[in-house]
């Protein structure tokens, strides 16, 4: 009986050991997505300044190389940005721009601009934002604004090329969705 | 009452009352091992657990592997190069498959020798043979999935074999291939079979096999029995055997990756061989060619299968039966061994085959190195076609070796210069000193340079030779532009002046020179662009003009091929940009 007990224990231990040893690489593969990094912020040439009229926001696609796992697409739409150029006061002054990611900070739909309301409105669950990208408070809106924060502003620069044309270049980036604070996805 | 008590044993009892699972398990464990436990009885359990390992590793591979003609290979490179333990998991799937085949062979031999097929176990035996057939089907459908050059070559041959089966062959081939040609639909069919249809059948047959095993008791070689319970007396042996084999699979998997090689591409060399377990059939085909091919590919395997299936009825017991079973085992093992060893030995001696294997290995690791950085949507072929390291030698041997040699090799009857190191300082200096050397103009009709060299070096002082050397060094930098007026000291200016002194009579440079006769232009000499122009049209006025012996390749090669070849000849290794 003792011998039988010992053999049974040994069988179980050997079986368990084998299973664990074989499972380790499998688990590492399974958990690999936790290890992969998001794409870092990168600068993209989005549009010539002359294509941005003052007063109303304009939406532009951000195009560039997209890497999807092993596939490298030389040119794809990576996302959209809204660009708002304030009506210029004087002439000759440096144009004042605001650039937002068009991705709704609630759950990631692409927000529209409503000229009639002069505000950004998300078609999915009604997230609403002012011209300046701020979250419109529930009281003003008359319903609960599902957006947890304002639109995500993106750093930009105006760059003059060899021919003298001025271009808008945007530092494009993605942020965690549905969080009050703004955290880049890394 | 027990059903309401929330305790572990209560739950167990309840589950057992509802499903009977625990008593089934207890019965399974306590059933006696007929003939007593033994080490040679571990093969069945080994097979079972190796199948489990294949299932689990296979499912994990499905997380990344993509059955697409443009993506399959690239997805595996990504798996192996970029994903934690990706290479190990794929290697486990590979090594466990090899182990599975070996153990299946041992299992078969064991059952043959113990004559385990005899009544009432005929169906158990036949279901086992069907399982063996399923294993073969798993191999045939699994090996091509990487869509590598080797895999593609193998499935091409296998499809041909299937097509050559009398009557059903052509239809089966088309159905399996998903049309008339190997391609995306073939891959989808193979994949569906490999990951859905075959596993389902396997589970079914294993289920039947095991249930019959339980019903009939395990086959026993001898009649005497101590009737020890299966658990733990046989289990401990099984556990040790599984631990050893799975351990070996793991060690192998950490040390050696599963083979991959370059992606399937018609421009790459190919000398496909089947996997080791199919080598015997491959060998058999050598003896039956032409119309008789089906004898090797269908008839003999079919007859062996039929013999095995009918064995329970062929073996009528007694000494004769014993003899039949032993003879079957011995003949099968020996024939398989001999037919496997023969082609292995022949291939080892076949230099040409070994050269192709070595080249494919080189191209494979280069392809993987490139693909690890990402693959264009059109697939890995595009990557290779732009790569001078891969395509340079291939294009050179296809188009240039009827005249040019490379490092003294590749050309059987060279008629022109040897292009290894073309445009390098060493190469040019060699030419200048002795153009009549067969490495340079010795095999051509270009005589002026030979003349010039002979005369010049016969009388040149050491200082003058040093000056010529300087021009050579300058030329090896693929020079462009003229030095500014006030520059007389720089390497470039010195070289330019040496050129001006020694070469300008015949050779042009930046629109100057060539007063005596028109020899090739030196602007950017030996650079990628210069070589590309030369390949396109050697009779260009700025190159050899009317005296060109080499034909123009502008129409024979694509612009991309010309750029790739030129970059390779110029010593460049970076892929050509789109
Ligand atoms: S995603 Fe925009 S409101 Fe929900």
Describe this entry's structure for a reader.
The complex is a heterodimer of chains A (186) and B (578). With 186 residues, chain A is α+β, with helices and mostly antiparallel strands. Chain A has two domains: 1-36; 42-172, Rieske Iron-sulfur Protein. Chain A is built from two helices and nine strands, in the order αβββββββαββ. Chain A has helices spanning 2-30, 138-141, and strands spanning 42-48, 58-68, 71-85, 97-101, 112-114, 119-121, 128-129, 156-160, 166-172. Chain A has a three-stranded antiparallel β-sheet with strand order 1-9-8, with no helix packed on it. In chain A, a hairpin with a 6-residue loop joins strand 6 and strand 7. Chain A is elongated, with a radius of gyration of 26 Å. By secondary structure, chain B is mostly helical. Chain B has 22 helices and two strands. The chains are: A alpha+beta (186), B mainly alpha (578). Chain A binds chain B through residues 4, 7-8, 10-11, 14-15, 17-18, 21-22, 24-26, 28-32, 35, 67, 69-74, and chain B through 53, 56-57, 60, 63-64, 71, 74-75, 77-78, 82-86, 88-89, 92, 231-233, 235-236, 239-240, 242-243, 246-247, 250, 253, 371, 374-377, 578.
């Amino acid at each position: 009986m003792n011998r039988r007990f010992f053999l049974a224990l040994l069988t179980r231990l050997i079986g368990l050991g084998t299973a664990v040893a074989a499972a380790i690489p499998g688990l590492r593969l399974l958990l690999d997505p936790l290890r992969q990094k998001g794409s870092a912020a990168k600068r993209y040439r989005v549009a010539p300044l002359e294509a941005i009229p003052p007063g109303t926001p304009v939406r532009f696609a951000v195009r560039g190389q997209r890497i999807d796992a092993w596939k490298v697409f030389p040119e794809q739409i990576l996302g959209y940005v809204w660009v708002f150029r304030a009506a210029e006061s004087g002439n000759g002054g440096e144009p004042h721009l605001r650039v937002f990611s068009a991705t709704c900070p609630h759950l990631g739909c692409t927000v529209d601009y409503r000229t009639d309301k002069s505000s950004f409105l998300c078609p999915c669950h009604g997230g609403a934002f002012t011209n300046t990208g701020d979250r419109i408070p529930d009281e003003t809106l008359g319903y609960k604004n599902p957006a947890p924060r304002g639109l995500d502003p993106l750093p930009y620069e105006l760059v003059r090329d060899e021919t003298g044309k001025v271009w808008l270049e945007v530092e494009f980036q993605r942020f965690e969705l549905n969080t009050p604070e703004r955290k880049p996805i890394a | 009452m027990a059903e309401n008590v929330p305790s572990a044993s209560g739950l167990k009892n309840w589950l057992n009352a509802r499903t009977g699972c625990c008593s089934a398990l207890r019965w399974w464990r306590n059933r006696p091992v007929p003939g007593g436990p033994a080490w040679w009885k571990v093969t069945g359990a080994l097979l079972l657990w190796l199948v489990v390992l294949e299932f689990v590793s296979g499912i994990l591979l499905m997380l990344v592997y993509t059955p697409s003609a443009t993506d399959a290979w690239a997805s595996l490179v990504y798996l192996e190069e970029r994903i934690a333990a990706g290479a190990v998991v794929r290697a486990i799937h590979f090594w466990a498959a090899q182990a599975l085949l070996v153990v299946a062979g041992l299992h078969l031999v064991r059952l043959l020798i113990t004559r385990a097929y005899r009544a009432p176990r005929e169906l158990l035996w036949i279901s086992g043979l069907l399982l063996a057939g399923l294993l073969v089907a798993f191999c045939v459908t699994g090996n091509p999935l990487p869509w590598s050059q080797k895999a593609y070559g193998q499935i091409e041959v296998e499809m041909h074999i299937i097509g050559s089966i009398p009557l059903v062959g052509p239809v089966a081939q088309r159905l399996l291939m998903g049309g008339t040609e190997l391609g995306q639909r073939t891959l989808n069919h193979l994949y569906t079979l490999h990951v859905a249809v075959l596993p389902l059948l396997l589970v079914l047959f294993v289920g039947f096999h095991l249930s019959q095993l339980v019903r009939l008791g395990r086959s026993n070689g001898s009649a005497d029995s101590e009737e020890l319970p299966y658990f733990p007396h046989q289990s401990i042996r099984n556990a040790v055997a599984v631990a050893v084999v799975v351990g070996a699979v793991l060690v192998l998997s950490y040390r050696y990756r599963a083979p991959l090689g370059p992606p399937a591409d018609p421009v790459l060399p190919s000398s496909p061989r089947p996997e080791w377990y199919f080598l015997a059939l491959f060998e058999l085909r050598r003896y039956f060619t032409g119309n008789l091919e089906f004898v090797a590919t269908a008839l003999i395997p079919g007859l062996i299968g039929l013999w095995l299936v009918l064995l329970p009825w062929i073996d009528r017991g007694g000494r004769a039966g014993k003899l039949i079973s032993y003879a079957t085992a011995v003949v099968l093992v020996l024939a398989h061994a001999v037919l496997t060893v023969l082609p292995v030995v022949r291939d080892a001696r076949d230099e040409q085959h070994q050269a192709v294997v070595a080249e494919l290995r080189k191209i494979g690791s280069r392809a993987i190195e490139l693909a690890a950085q990402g693959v264009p949507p059109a697939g890995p072929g595009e990557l290779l076609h732009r790569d001078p390291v891969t395509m340079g030698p291939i294009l050179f041997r296809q188009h240039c070796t009827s005249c040019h040699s490379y490092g003294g090799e590749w050309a059987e009857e060279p008629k022109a210069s040897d292009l290894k190191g073309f445009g390098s300082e060493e190469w040019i200096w060699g030419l200048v000193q002795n153009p009549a050397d067969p490495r340079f103009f010795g095999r051509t009709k270009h005589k002026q340079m030979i003349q010039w060299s002979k005369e010049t070096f016969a009388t040149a002082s050491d200082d003058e030779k040093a000056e010529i050397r300087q021009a050579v060094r300058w030329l090896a930098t693929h020079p462009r532009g003229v030095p500014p007026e006030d520059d007389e000291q720089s390497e470039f200016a010195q070289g330019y002046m040496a050129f001006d002194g020694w070469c300008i009579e015949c050779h042009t440079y930046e629109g100057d020179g060539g007063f005596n006769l028109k020899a090739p232009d030196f602007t950017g000499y030996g650079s990628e662009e210069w070589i590309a122009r030369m390949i396109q049209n050697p009779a260009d006025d700025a190159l050899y003009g009317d005296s060109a012996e080499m034909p123009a390749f502008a129409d024979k090669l694509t612009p991309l091929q010309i750029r790739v070849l030129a970059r390779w000849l110029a010593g460049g290794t970076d892929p050509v940009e789109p």
